[in-house]
Structure formats: C-alpha cells, structure tokens
Design goal:
The protein contains eleven helices and 20 strands. The chain is of the alpha+beta class and 414 residues long. The protein has a ten-stranded mixed sheet with strand order 5-4-3-6-7-8-9-18-20-19. A hairpin with a 6-residue loop joins β15 and β16. α9 crosses α11. The longest helix is centred in the C-terminal third of the chain and has 17 residues. It binds S-adenosylmethionine. S-adenosylmethionine binds next to β2, α5 and β4. The site of S-adenosylmethionine has 27 residues, from β2, α5 and β4.
Length: 414
C-alpha cells in the first residue's frame, strides 16, 4: 500500500468513525477513487484532509473548490444513487464527485457533469483520465439550463449554491426523480433533497446545513451586503437596505437586554438565525471581518459581534419607522469568552429610535425558537412549488418567494 492509499484509508476511516459515512456503497466509492489525482498540485496530506480545497478564485472570492469530503458524503447519501441511474451534476469542478458518482451508478448508469468554466472542464477531463474513469460525460455550459440532450435524469445534483429551483431542472427529471441542491433560503444555505411528485411539487426528503460557492451565469443572484461602519456588512434576508439609514441607526446605540438562552455559533447562524430570517420581516445578518486573535479589542459594534466560522458576525432586525431607523442586534455579553467555541451568554442591543421595539421582536422570536425545540435546518420540511402551480394541501405556513418557485417551509411545531 502506497502513501496515497494509506492517507485515503485514514480519511475514510475517520469519516466513518464520526458517523459521516452511513452508506456502504458511498464508503466503497471513497475508498476506491483517488482524490489526490483530482488535486494534482496539492500536497498529499491536504488532498486527504477532511477539508475543502479552493482551486480557483476571482478577486479574492472562491469560484471553484474541491468540496469537503464529509460534506460530499452527506450529499451522496442524500442523493441515494442506485446502479443504472442517469445523473446530471451541475458544477464539475475537479471531476472528483463525478468520479464517485460514476462508481455508484456503475456501467449501466450514466453521469453527465457540467461546468461553466472551460479551463475547469479541461482540468476535470485530465483528472478523470489520470484516475482511469472513462464513464463521465463532461460538458462546458451554464448548468442553470440543465443539459437537455441527456434528459431525463433520475437524479440532478448541484454542487454549487442556488437561490432558486429552476424550471429547467424540474423539467429534466424523470417522474419521481430527485433534485439535490444547496438552496439559499433567506440567507441560510441548506442542502435539500427534493423529490418530484405527480402534482408537480417537489417535497424534501432530507435537509442538511451546508456552505457552497454560488452559481455563476444566468442563475447568479447578487448576495452582496451593504457595508456600514467598522467594516461591518449588513445582509438583509429579503430586500436591500439603505446604508445611510443603517448608519443613522448605528450612530445611536441604545439599551441592551439579556437573552435567556446562551447561543453557540451554529445556533446563531443556522438555528436561531435561520428562524429569525424565516419569521421576521427585516431580519438581517451582520458580517464583520475575519476574527483577528492579534486584535482582541476592536471598537464599537465589531467588538460585540460573535465568532462564526472565523468571522465576526451576528443577526438582528432592521426597520425604518416614522420615528427614525432602528436596528436590534444580538451581541456578546461582556461575561462571554469569545475564545471558547460557545455557547456564549448574549444580549440584544438596540440602535436608533426604532431599536427598542425591534429588540422586543428579537426576544420574542428567540423565545418562540426555544419553544419550537431550537430547530436547525435538519428539522425543516420544505415543499417547492414551481410558478403556475397551486400550493398542495399541508405545505408549510412560511412562504419564501424565489425566482421561479415558491418554497413553503414547515418548521417543527409551526
Ligand atoms: C464547489 S465547486 C464543485 C466541486 C466539484 N463537484 C468537485 O467534485 O470538485 C462548484 C463548481 O460550480 C461551477 N459553476 C458555477 N456556476 C455554474 C453554472 N452556472 N453552471 C455550471 N457550473 C457552474 C464552478 O465553476 C465550480 O467549479
């Protein structure tokens, strides 16, 4: 056994030991396909770490990466590939996931993998040849349109984030087929496996949290935040905010109120953060710079943000009112030790004339989230209704309008 084989065995054993590999077929594929041949310029140790590896960036923003192996394992389990399946992947990247899928569908199946970038498609072709995987059809094109010549597909999977479920993907699935995609839902990205029903609606079979680079091309949506003070950006969940109004609110910091529940980073971003965005108009996320251990004492709002995935961040509600603009933001309690991974004691700080009423709403939403059992993305049930179709009975009460569909969200106890 060579060094690469040993490193791969260690990676797969590790993923299995922490419960990330529940399907024997997926485990076998990870053991068989040599990831390092899809990352030829990356040291062996990194190629077999359970980490995403950025492979392309534009202006400092990652545009392609080899996804984290354990996230790939979760998504391959969600995709539930069977021998003989025809599958379309949108986001070929290095070609590694396509090679794993080719192994899972076997010689009777077929994998088509599309990438928008010709250089990446050329690279994926070289990697697949080096790994002696001949069964993948690579296509350079905009996956927002799917790939009609290969349709219909039993499975369509996006390995790139989308803010919409496009009619092309739904139209290219077989009846009862499954679409798996990282879907943006008011600022929370979830990997959702959607089964196409006879009534034309798609219902979630499973939902997991995830973090993927965004779709380029005709399906791209701008998720840029509005930068306000101290390098802090405000990302509204449902509409744009006027930076001048946010600045005016931030210039008038007001009282703080105690939040009874301590919050960890996952609670703040994917748990309560998701809940607030789904239930409160004006919900927003606040994003500061990277957490800098050499600058433990930044000033102002950045000093009160929480450490989330190496960034200073928070959530809150912004609104304009006849009395003036206001913001209520969840902030660290001074008793919290941000060097730990949390959960931390937190407070809500009001800014501007409308801030205190917004603090009431943040506190009420936190209490409702706790009463509902602190739901996370995994607890949601989604029904995606393409434009022009009526909502089926039993679809959730929370409605998120996307470009070509409405997503009905059913949280537990809602
Ligand atoms: C996270 S990477 C995919 C990783 C890949 N599955 C692998 O195994 O290496 C996302 C990919 O989506 C591609 N992409 C972005 N927008 C696209 C589009 N509209 N159509 C097709 N591919 C797109 C990017 O170029 C990038 O290579």
């Amino acid at each position: 056994m060579g060094a690469a084989d040993r490193a791969r065995a260690r990676l797969v054993d590790g993923m299995r030991d922490v419960g990330r590999l529940c399907s024997p077929a997926v485990e076998e594929a990870f053991r068989a396909v040599p990831r390092h041949l899809f990352l030829p310029r990356v040291p062996l140790e990194r190629a077999y770490a359970d980490e995403a590896v950025a492979t392309q960036s534009v202006d400092g923003v990652t545009t392609s990466s080899a996804s984290q192996p354990s996230m790939m394992a979760i998504m391959l389990a969600q995709l539930d590939l069977r021998p003989g399946h025809r599958v379309l992947e949108i986001g070929a990247g290095t070609g590694y996931n396509a090679a794993l899928m080719a192994r899972l569908v076997g010689p009777q199946g077929h994998v088509v993998s599309v990438d928008i970038d010709a250089d990446l498609v050329d690279g994926a072709a070289r990697h697949l040849a080096a790994a002696e995987v001949g069964e993948v059809e690579l296509v350079c094109g905009d996956g927002a349109l799917g790939h009609p010549p290969g349709a219909p597909y039993d499975r369509i999977v996006l390995t790139v984030g989308s803010g919409d479920v496009r009619p092309e993907w739904v139209g290219q699935l077989v009846p009862g087929g499954r679409l798996l995609l990282p879907l943006g839902l008011r600022g929370t990205q979830v990997s959702v496996a959607l089964d196409l029903g006879a009534d034309g609606a798609l219902r979630s079979a499973s939902v997991r949290r995830c973090s993927f680079v965004r779709l380029r091309g005709v399906g791209a949506v701008s998720e840029a935040g509005t930068t306000v003070d101290g390098g802090v950006s405000v990302l509204p969940a449902d509409s744009r905010v006027d930076p001048a109004l946010v600045r005016a609110a931030l210039a008038a910091p007001g009282p703080v109120r105690h939040v009874p529940e301590p919050l960890g980073a996952g609670d703040l971003w994917d748990g309560f953060g998701m809940w607030l965005a789904l239930t409160e108009p004006g919900a927003c996320r606040l994003l500061g710079g990277r957490v800098d251990p050499d600058d433990p004492d930044p000033d102002g709002l950045p000093a009160e943000l929480l450490p989330v995935r190496d960034h200073a961040a928070s959530i809150g509600i912004f609104a304009d009112s006849p009395a003036g603009p206001g913001l209520a933001a969840v902030v660290l309690d001074p008793a919290a030790n941000p060097v730990t991974r949390g959960p931390w004691p937190v407070r809500v700080r009001a800014f501007g004339p409308a801030g205190e009423a917004l603090s009431d709403r943040v506190l009420a939403a936190a209490a409702a989230w706790v009463d509902a059992g602190r739901p996370a993305p995994e607890d949601l049930r989604l029904t995606v209704v393409p434009d022009g179709l009526p909502p089926p009975p039993g679809a959730g009460a929370i409605v998120v309008d996307q470009g070509h569909c409405r997503v009905f969200v059913c949280p537990p106890a809602a």
